[in-house]
Amino acid sequence: MMEEARRLHARLLRRGERRLQPLLLRVLATGDLRYAARLLDSYPSSSSSPTSPPSAPLHNRLLHALATARHPLLLPCFARAHRLRLLTPLSFTLLFSSSSTTQRFAACAHALLTKSGHAASCGDPYLASALVASYARSGLLEESRRVFDELPHSDAAACNALLSAYARGGRVGDAEALFAGMPDRNVVSWTAMVSGYAQNGRHEDAVRTFLEMWEGAGVRPNEVTVSSVLPACAAVGALALGRKVERYVRGRGMLRNVYVANALVEMYAKCGSIRRAWMVFRGIGTRRDLCSWNSMIMAFAVHGLWREALGLFHKLRMTGAKPDGITFVGVILACTHGGLVDEGKLLFNSMREEFGLKPRIEHYGCMVDLLGRAGLLKEADSLIASMPMEPDAVIWGALLGACSFHGNLELAELAVEKLMHLEPQNTANLVVLSNIYASRGKWDGVAQVWKLLKEKDHKKSAGYSFIELDGRMHKFLVEDKSHPRYEMVYDTLDSITLTMKLVNLENSEVES
């Protein structure tokens, strides 16, 4: 198709014709944006020229193609249109919509918008939301908010752009305040809140907001909403809600979206339903991407199904796809569960030698865990010493865990010394060391550790659990009275405790 466009260009030049529009549209259809930009640049800009000069709509067609492709020629072509006085509000909308803008350029483009006489066009909802989003993507949230506040009318698109920016930037409180004041919330607004909560670790709020949207407001989730809430379902163990979401996406054909399917695989895997995860994975078929394979390999590995994980890795290799760092975390973890030290070493070494991947700290962590569980503590310590980056608390924690299991006091003391520098508030490491001292009969060491714990005012963090009932998540702590029905909960617990005691009493009488 590109060859046809070039032949057409040559014919027009031979005939002395320079009709730009049909030729440019033909070139744009081929996807050769660099040639299209050169073509537009080669045409005279003067209206007195015998050939028709490029028009504003024609420039906008090119700007649209460049913005969609995030092409580096977007800014030069925009500057040319400015020199030729061909910029329109749509031109700025296209520019601000491009995710390639930097902080400096977002500010300069806004100034140019004002200088070119189009500032009044900020009442245009598309231009306004694009400008708000441009500042937000650049990290200039205060500027984004200022533009938003100066809008003559509150527009849903601009609200959603700022809302998404707050959520992505971790400013959940600002997002909540903006969301609460929105008169018209659409699926984009709700999705921004669900996604923002999930990305900032507030998984319960993400699930609650999703249910409020779906069941309360009657807004139908889209693919992005579903992909955002499923990780939150996994984090709080909301398996029943996850299954309900799966029925919803199947009924609307959303499983054709590989991102939705991958999110389902990961949700089922983290909730412990490996069979359902495998069924969804198989259903993806030829549309599987590397994320699909990684999610399923990791699911098998985490649940101790090391044979299945390694088998799936070999199937991935047979497809010709190149594994990435996440893949190797999964397969080395599988080797750890299977006790396959030699296989794990081969895989770790193949990252650099065969696939050109530089092992990251998480890969070293997996290897330390693999060697430590196998009792190869000296080798694990040597690997830590050879690391090209500073070992983190996960690395030393893995070594300490192995030392606790195998009773290696010398390396345990080293690991705890490092951990106390990295995470001084985590007194659990000292408790592990105390237990190792006790197992070796070193009571002086136990006393020293507990003296340190007393100085640090050691308090164990309260544990809690989630229970999903009728689509709602209920959180419980020890001696917790925050639940609205806590009296009934404790009455039921007392009844169960009494029943267990009676059963034990009956069993002891039968045995005697």
Automatic annotation (TrEMBL):
GO terms for molecular function: RNA binding. PPR repeats lie at residues 155-185, 186-221, 289-323. It comes from Miscanthus lutarioriparius. The keyword Magnesium does not apply. It comes from the Eukaryota. PROSITE patterns: PPR. Keywords: Repeat, Transit peptide. The keyword Ion transport does not apply. This is Pentatricopeptide repeat-containing protein. GO terms for biological process: RNA modification. Pfam families: E_motif (PF20431), PPR (PF01535), PPR_2 (PF13041). Gene3D superfamilies: Tetratricopeptide repeat domain.
